[in-house]
Q: What sequence folds into this?
């Protein structure tokens, strides 16, 4: 936790005093080992970042005087289109993409996505939000990514995807593609990554017909959690 | 498991027939749902890859006729120097770096590495090898990375690191560095990544005195499992 995300109901006494409890308090005590007078990186969810000075610390409660005056880091100019990963992987992926500064993620269906994945409790809004916030805390960001679920491949790809792709550099990572992933897209990116086992040929064709180029990330098949930073770093 | 790694004692009847048991057999039956006649991607540990055709399948045993004639993918021209991550993270990191094709990894000490991490059972040779092999299976590679442990910072950095760095493009990822990570090193890379909380200034200075440039990966602090593919992809 390199930054403590603050919510509106953390504030007591106007906009300059905050009271922490629960998970964040435990982290500050156990990991940061904060004491009265220490300064901590803080940030208002969706707003400015800054510093908080610990003014009071006793059983189950920590108070800080806060100053919020630093804009969050710039968003990554990328939209990520992911075939829904298995729930255990999805948790790590949400944290990781949030930490990288991706602000728009679409979790879509694909032939090789197991149907049961769509029933996973990880997809509940509160749960996703928890992992996304952990990513913000990691990266010292304050702005939550928007994550949308598209459990129907065809309507998403035919009706919605062409609009998302417009005026972006759109690539789908595909191990069989003859073209290696280019370096530095020079404009905003839409990046699609398939499920374990990859998109099936029909799906790749549909993406290509939306304006995606199929590219390979070298001679290796990477897991989604490795492929995402690899692909985004190459393009951006 | 996109490729099944074979070991010498899997072979029965010369060099063309293989019998699988245990973890790999279960995977082939449960995930690949292999049947007699199916072809599977296989590779000899440290040697050639190829195809295996299932010839016999019964309780607890699968036999294949194998043909090994494809060289493994090229190694990534990179040496990775990592401050020892916490054990849970290390498992994923070993799998990930092995899948990316890194062939030399040094796990080193740093001020912010908790002493207990060096006692973790994950560091036992057999355990590390297990995660590295999972990375090869993921990436369709056959060549194990070499992983060495350097639990003493100073002797490693003073006596050994200058030799490793020679004739490579050496960078240490450091959130406070003024220089952004360059794109495309154009020659082999030595990449160093610190622990949670980062290398302390003395350590960064020591690395710089060995020939490393301190570079930043954007405005964000990434977790090691995200930072590794991000950094390698940018440089290579």
A:
């Amino acid at each position: 936790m390199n930054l403590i995300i603050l919510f509106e109901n953390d504030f007591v006494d106007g906009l300059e005093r905050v009271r922490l409890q629960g998970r964040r308090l435990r982290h500050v005590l156990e990991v940061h080992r904060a004491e009265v007078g220490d300064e901590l990186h803080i940030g208002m969810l969706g707003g400015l970042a800054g510093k908080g000075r610990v003014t009071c610390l006793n059983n189950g409660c920590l108070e800080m005087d806060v100053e919020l005056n630093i804009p969050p880091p710039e968003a990554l100019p990328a939209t990520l289109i992911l075939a829904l990963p298995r729930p255990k992987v999805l948790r790590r992926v949400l944290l990781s993409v949030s930490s990288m500064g991706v602000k728009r993620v679409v979790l879509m269906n694909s032939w090789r996505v197991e149907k049961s994945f769509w029933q996973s409790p990880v997809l509940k809004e509160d749960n996703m939000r928890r992992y996304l916030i952990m990513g913000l805390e990691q990266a010292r960001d304050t702005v939550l990514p928007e994550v949308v679920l598209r459990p129907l491949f065809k309507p998403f790809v035919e009706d919605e995807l062409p609009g998302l792709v417009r005026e972006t550099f759109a690539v789908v990572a595909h191990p069989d593609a003859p073209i290696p992933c280019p370096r530095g897209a020079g404009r905003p990116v839409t990046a699609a990554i398939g499920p374990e086992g990859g998109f099936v040929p029909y799906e790749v064709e549909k993406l290509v017909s939306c304006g995606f180029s199929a590219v390979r990330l070298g001679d290796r098949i990477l897991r989604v959690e490795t492929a995402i930073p690899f692909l985004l770093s190459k393009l951006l």
